[in-house]
User: Fold this.
Amino acid sequence: MAYATQADLENRLTHKKLVELTDFDGSGELVAARVTEALDMASADIDAYASGRYMPPLAQSKQVLDICLRIAIYRLYANRQRAIPETVAKDREDAMAMLKDVSTGKASLDQAATPQTTGMNVVKRDHDTDPETFDNGKLTGF
Assistant:
C-alpha cells in the first residue's frame, strides 16, 4: 500500500515537473506507472525500516506522507538519470536518517507501536514431569 498518491506528489511538485520526470520518450504525457512505482518503492522502504516497531501498513499521517514523498521524489529524479538537486538529495537523506532512527528506537512515528516480540515462538517444558519422547534407549537400533 502506497502512503502517498499522485495527487500528493502534484501538491509537492507541479504536474509539469512530474511529466518531465516520468516522460522518457518525449510524448508530453505523465507516465502514471512510473509515479506509482516510485511511491510503492518509497512505501516499501518505510515498511522495511518501521516494521520492527510498527505493524505495516501504517496509518495515514502527515509524517508518513512527508517521508514517502521525499523518498519518491528522489527516486523519480534518479530513475530519470538527471542531476539530482541538492535539496532533493538532502530531503531523501533526512527521510532515510529518520527511518534508520525509527528502526533503532531513537525516533518514533506518529503511529501506535506494535509490541516487541523475540521473533521466535519458544516452547519451554519441564524435563522432570515431561520426559523426552525419544531418548537414547528408545532410539537404539535405528
About this structure: The chain has a mean pLDDT of 89. DSSP finds five helices and no strands in the chain. The helical segments are 6-12, 15-22, 32-50, 62-80, 86-104.
